[in-house]
Amino acid sequence: MKILLWHGYLLGGTGSNVYTQALARAWSRAGHDVTVFCQEPHAERFDLAGAEAVRPDVGGILPVFVLDRYEGLEARLLQDLSAEERERFVELNAAALRERLPADLVFANHVLLGGPVAAATGARYAVKAHGSELEYSMRGNPDLAAWGRESLAGAEAVFVGSAHIRAVLEDVVGHVDRVHEVPPGVDVEEFVPEPRDEALAHLLEEARADRPNPGNANERLPDEGNAWRLAAFLAAEKPTVVYFGKLLRNKGVHLLLEALGGLDARAVIVGFGDYRAELEAQAPARTLFTGPLEHRHLRHLLPLADIAVVPSIFPEAFGMVAAEAAAAGVPPLVARHSGLAEIATGLEEEYPPELAHLASFTSGDVDELRARLAELLSLAPPERARLREAGRRAAVARWSWAHVAERLLAPLQMQ
Q1: pLDDT per residue over 212-226, tens digit each?
Q2: Quick one: 100 and 211 in the same domain?
């Protein structure tokens, strides 16, 4: 198929960005002709397996759901833009896609503004709802909800990553036809278990290859001096907990830091966001903040960890970071709610019954999180190995990108 894949943002750093990059790569590897439309200024740095990347001119304004900084663009909350500004953004993107028609499919991310962009092309289209637009911008906004509903009405398929997001979609925009539930995926060939010595050597090699970031001036780049900092911090083999994701209060990292108090464990906190300074002030002594890391780092960092924690206190469409950790053989411990609960269920179905409770904890419950961490860290080596192997099985069976990419096209190829 010839597929035009629209994504209004970057190709790394957040869930929908990674989703787009991985989907383009998986479809390209499967033999499809894929063109990615995004605002990534350095697409050549990402492995798209031959997919072409196009950066539409959007007039300098980028509608977002959470305020971040973007190179060469003014990021503004979607709900704060005027109708004229939103429509201009849609038309500029749609014009870029129309230049590449005909195509078998326009596949657009985000109900807004992906739905309107795809609809404006006049081509056959499908939309992937990611959850961030629904929760952060559209919920409680009747005008945006109506616009999303109208845009989805013409889609041949609407995809959600979990039963939770299916319910959120219905709650925010009303009934939607032709909805298909397809979880996001993980590259199970990239995220694999790795011996500790090899993982550390490869991690330090990747860190030494990082671009300079004097004074950590660019929050989207890894911290300055990460190579020697990681080497010193991880030199000895000690209990290690990892968090990777945005550093926002909604992500619950402060709960993890509180739960670590009194435990014999160190923590590596990976990510960027406006909440970083507060988290650093709260963090226990044995905590290392690295700034954002890419998959080339994370694939080696994860095998150095005993647990990967996803403590989010806000609804999540899925839990891609947990799936990546499981694929790397690291037991994820997730807050049990929304899309994360479905990750927990997938893990529990593979875990030994007596250890299944170690996949999750009650959202927001610091004491329970601390207890789960303590129990995981106290497991004997054979039990720990069983969890690692079971998590890997769950990731391969349920969340591989090749499987996800195929499932996304299946309902469209039958029409």
Answers
A1: 999 999 998 999 999
A2: no
Residue 302 in contact with residue 326, Cβ under 8 Å? no
Residue 310 is part of a domain; what is its CATH number? Answer: 3.40.50.2000
pLDDT > 90? residue 318: no
Q: Do both 264 and 129 map to the same domain? A: no
In a domain, 191, yes or no: no
Residues 43-64: pLDDT tens digits? 999 999 999 999 999 999 999 9
List residues bridging with 335 in a β-sheet: 361
**Pairwise CA distance, residues 71 & 11, whole Å:** 13
181-212 residues labelled b (16+ CB within 10 A) or e (exposed): ebbbbbbbebbbebeeeebbebbbebbeebee
Residue-level length of the chain: 415
Closest of 297, 242, 302 to residue 267, by C-alpha: 242
Which runs of consecutive H residues, i.e. helices, occur in 68-194? 83-98, 111-120, 132, 142-153, 163-173
State the total domains in the chain: 2
Distance, CA of 260 to CA of 240 (rounded, Å): 11
Q: Tokens standing for 9? A: 């943002």
Distance, CA of 359 to CA of 355 (rounded, Å): 8
